[in-house]
Design brief:
With about 350 residues, this protein is of the alpha+beta class. Helix content is about 45%, strand content about 15%. It is built from twelve helices and ten strands. Strand 9 (about 290-295) and strand 10 form a beta hairpin.
C-alpha cells in the first residue's frame, strides 16, 4: 500500500502529465503543487514510485510519466468524478432533447460524447433481448396481407410483412390487436411466448390459422438474434494524440473498425456500472496504448446497452468519467420518456 503522501505525489504527476504532455520532474512538482515537503523528499518518493512500477522514466535525464499501473491506482483512488458545469448539462439536454427517433438519439449521443471528451465515442444500440414490449400494431395491407410493427420500451421499431393463409377482416384484426396488446404490452420479451400460446383458441376456427401465423411472426421477431449494432464517432480526435501512440496509430484504428472488438471492450450491458480499462487491461493488442471508459444506459434503472469513449492512456480520467456518466443518464431519461 502506498502512503498518502506518495499517493499525493502520484496524483500530481498524473495531473501534470495529462495537462502538459511533458514528463514531470520533482522541481516542477514542488513548484506547482502544495505537497508540504522538500524537493529531496519528493525525489525520494518518485524513486519509490518508480521502483514499484507506478511511474517510469521515458529517457535519461527526463522527468517521469505514469505507467498503466500508475493510472490504474489513480483511477481507483479517485475521490470524485469531475461534475459537469451547469452550461454543459444544459447543452447536453438541449442537444439530446431534439432527437426524433432512436437512430437520431444514438447519432446525437455519439457526436456529443466525442465533442465533450475529445476522444473516440462508441454507443451500442439497445439490445432487443433486454427490452420489453411497448406496443404491437397490426395493419391490413391487403385482404390476406398484414404488417406487424413491434415497438419496444427503448424506442426500437421492428416491422414484418405477413402473408396470411386466408383473408382477415378489419374487425378480426382490431380484435387480435386489442387482445394481443392486453397480454404483452409492458412485458419482457422472454415472457411473451407463454402469454400468447392459447390466444388462437379464442378466435373462430376459420381465423385461427391467421392468428397463429401472426403470433409465429411476432415470436420470431422477439427471438431473432439481430446483430448487436454500434455507432462510432470522433475517430479523427485520435490524430491529435499521435505522439501518445508509441509506434503508430494504425493498430488502434484497425481495432476500432472491428465491431466485435468494440462490443467486447464495452462489456456486458448487465454490468451497468462505470468501467475503466487502462492500457494492457484491454485484451486486444491494438488497443494496449488506449484506455476505455464505459457505462450502461437505460430506462427504469436497468441498463439495455452501453456507451463509452476510447482514447490514449494519457487521459483526463475525472473529466472523461464525468462526461460519460452524465450523457448516459440523459440518454436513459430520453428512453424513459420516449
Amino acid at each position: 500500500m502506498l502512503s498518502e503522501r506518495r499517493l499525493q505525489v502520484l496524483r500530481a504527476i498524473v495531473q501534470d502529465y495529462v495537462g502538459t504532455e511533458e514528463p514531470v520532474g520533482s522541481k516542477a512538482l514542488t513548484e506547482r503543487h502544495n505537497l508540504g515537503v522538500s524537493p529531496a523528499t519528493v525525489r525520494n518518493d518518485m524513486a519509490a514510485l518508480e521502483d514499484e512500477g507506478y511511474i517510469a522514466q521515458p529517457h535519461t535525464s527526463a522527468g517521469r510519466i505514469p505507467t498503466d499501473k500508475g493510472y490504474r491506482l489513480f483511477v481507483d483512488k479517485l475521490a470524485e468524478v469531475k461534475p459537469l458545469t451547469a452550461p454543459e448539462r444544459r447543452a447536453i439536454q438541449n442537444f439530446l432533447d431534439g432527437a426524433v427517433d432512436l437512430d437520431d438519439v444514438v447519432a446525437r449521443t455519439v457526436r456529443l460524447l466525442a465533442q465533450l471528451t475529445r476522444q473516440v465515442a462508441v454507443v451500442q444500440y439497445p439490445s432487443l433481448t433486454r427490452s420489453t414490449v411497448r406496443h404491437v400494431e397490426l395493419l391490413s395491407m391487403a385482404p390476406a396481407r398484414v404488417m406487424l410493427v413491434l415497438i419496444t420500451d427503448t424506442g426500437r421499431v421492428e416491422q414484418r410483412m405477413i402473408d396470411c393463409p386466408a383473408p382477415f377482416g378489419e374487425t378480426s384484426l382490431a380484435d387480435l390487436r386489442a387482445r394481443l396488446n392486453s397480454r404483452v404490452a409492458g412485458r419482457r420479451f422472454t415472457d411473451v411466448p407463454q402469454l400468447v400460446q392459447d390466444l388462437p383458441e379464442g378466435f373462430e376456427p376459420e381465423d385461427r390459422g391467421t392468428v397463429q401465423t401472426v403470433l409465429s411472426t411476432l415470436l420470431e421477431t422477439l427471438v431473432e438474434q439481430t446483430e448487436e449494432r454500434l455507432m462510432i464517432g470522433g475517430t479523427a480526435n485520435l490524430t491529435r494524440f499521435a505522439h501518445d501512440f508509441p509506434l503508430t496509430i494504425r493498430p488502434v484504428l484497425e481495432a476500432l473498425e472491428e465491431q466485435v472488438v468494440l462490443l467486447k471492450l464495452l462489456g456486458e450491458a448487465k454490468d451497468s456500472g462505470m468501467t475503466v480499462r487502462i492500457g494492457h487491461e484491454n485484451a486486444h493488442e491494438g488497443l494496449n496504448s488506449t484506455s476505455v471508459v464505459s457505462v450502461g444506459y437505460g430506462s427504469g434503472g436497468e441498463a439495455v446497452a452501453k456507451l463509452g469513449v476510447v482514447g490514449p492512456t494519457r487521459m483526463d480520467y475525472p473529466g472523461t468519467m464525468g462526461a460519460v456518466r452524465a450523457v448516459a443518464r440523459y440518454v436513459g431519461q430520453i428512453l424513459a420518456e420516449s
